[in-house]
C-alpha cells in the first residue's frame, strides 16, 4: 500500500482561530485594525513570511522582519488555544495506521510550531516523518519539499492529502495521486475530492 502524506493546517487541524488571534496581536501593536477569520483563511498556506506579508498588505502596511519575529514568538509559545482536530481525522489516522501504511506530514508551517501543535494535540504518534516549511530550502508547491518527506519515510510512492493548490501541484510534479480536502482553507483540484474527513479512508483505498 502507498504511504499517505498529509498537509497540516486546513487538512488535519483547524488552526485558523489561533493564527488569527496572533496575527491580530501583531497588527494591533502597530495600530492596524484586526483581520476577520474568513480573511485569514484566504492567507494561509504559503508559510509565515508570506502570511505576514498578506496580513499587513490587507491593512495597508508592509510586514517587516520584526513583525515576523513577533508573530513567530507569540505563536510558537502558545499555538494551541482554539486549534482543533477536524472531526473524522482521528478515526481516519487509526484506520490508516492499522493498515500498516506509513504516514507523513508536509507542511509550510515552521517546524517548531508544527511540533508544538502535533504534541499538544497528541498527533505525533501517527507520523513517521514531519517536514515543516523551514526544514528544507523548499516549500510547497516545490516538489522537493514533498520529496523530502518521501525520503524520510523511505518510500518512493505515496498519496498526498491536502486543502490547497500547493499540495496538489507538489504531488502532480512528482506524479503522485492527490486528494483535495474541501473542508480546508484553500482551493485546488486533485485526483479525488473529499467533502469530509470521514470519506478519506475509502478514497485513499481506491487510490491504492
Brief descriptors of the model:
208 residues, alpha/beta, Rossmann fold, two-stranded antiparallel sheet
Describe this structure in words.
- By secondary structure, this protein is α/β, with parallel strands linked by helices.
- It folds into two domains: 3-14 and 83-207, 3-Layer(aba) Sandwich (Rossmann fold); 16-77, Orthogonal Bundle (DNA polymerase, domain 1).
- The chain has nine helices and eight strands.
- It has helices at 16-29, 37-41, 48-58, 65-77, 89-98, 111-120, 143-153, 165-173, 200-207; strands at 3-6, 13-14, 84-85, 103-106, 129-131, 158-162, 178-181, 192-194.
- The protein has a six-stranded parallel sheet, sandwiched between helices.
- Helix 1 crosses helix 4 (65-77) and helix 7 (143-153) crosses helix 8.
- The model has no long low-confidence stretch (mean pLDDT 97).
CATH top level of the largest domain is: Alpha Beta
Helical fraction equals 40-55%
End-to-end separation in angstroms reads 6 Å
Oligomer: single chain
Backbone structural class: alpha/beta
Instruction: Tell me the number of helical segments per DSSP (H or I, 4 or more residues long).
Output: 9
What are the secondary-structure elements, in order, as H or E?
Answer: EEHHHHEHEHEHEHEEH
Low-pLDDT segments? none
Mean pLDDT: 97
Q: Could you tell me the CATH topology label of the largest domain.
A: Rossmann fold
- How many distinct beta strands? 8
- What would you report as the Rg, rounded to the nearest angstrom? 16 Å
Query: Which descriptor suits the 3D outline?
Result: globular
CATH architecture of the largest domain: 3-Layer(aba) Sandwich
What's the number of domains? 2
CATH superfamily of the largest domain: HAD superfamily/HAD-like
Q: Strand order, main sheet: write it out.
A: 5-4-1-6-7-8
Strand content: 5-15%
The description of the largest β-sheet is: 6 strands, parallel
Amino acid at each position: 500500500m502507498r504511504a499517505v502524506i498529509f498537509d497540516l493546517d486546513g487538512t488535519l487541524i483547524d488552526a485558523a482561530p489561533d493564527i488569527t488571534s496572533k496575527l491580530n496581536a501583531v497588527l494591533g501593536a502597530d495600530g492596524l485594525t484586526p483581520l476577520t477569520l474568513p480573511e485569514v483563511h484566504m492567507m494561509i498556506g504559503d508559510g509565515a513570511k508570506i502570511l505576514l506579508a498578506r496580513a499587513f498588505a490587507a491593512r495597508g502596511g508592509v510586514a517587516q522582519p520584526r513583525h515576523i519575529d513577533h508573530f513567530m514568538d507569540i505563536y510558537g509559545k502558545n499555538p494551541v488555544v482554539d486549534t482543533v482536530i477536524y472531526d473524522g481525522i482521528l478515526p481516519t489516522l487509526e484506520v490508516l495506521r492499522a493498515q500498516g501504511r506509513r504516514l507523513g506530514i508536509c507542511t509550510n508551517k515552521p517546524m517548531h510550531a508544527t511540533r508544538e501543535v502535533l504534541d499538544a494535540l497528541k498527533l505525533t504518534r501517527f507520523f513517521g516523518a514531519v517536514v515543516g516549511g523551514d526544514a528544507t530550502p523548499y516549500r510547497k508547491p516545490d516538489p522537493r519539499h514533498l520529496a523530502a518527506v518521501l525520503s524520510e519515510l523511505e518510500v518512493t510512492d505515496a498519496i498526498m492529502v491536502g486543502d490547497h493548490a500547493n499540495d496538489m501541484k507538489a504531488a502532480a510534479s512528482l506524479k503522485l495521486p492527490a486528494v483535495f480536502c474541501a473542508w480546508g482553507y484553500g482551493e485546488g483540484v486533485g485526483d479525488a475530492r473529499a467533502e469530509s474527513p470521514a470519506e478519506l479512508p475509502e478514497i485513499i483505498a481506491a487510490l491504492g
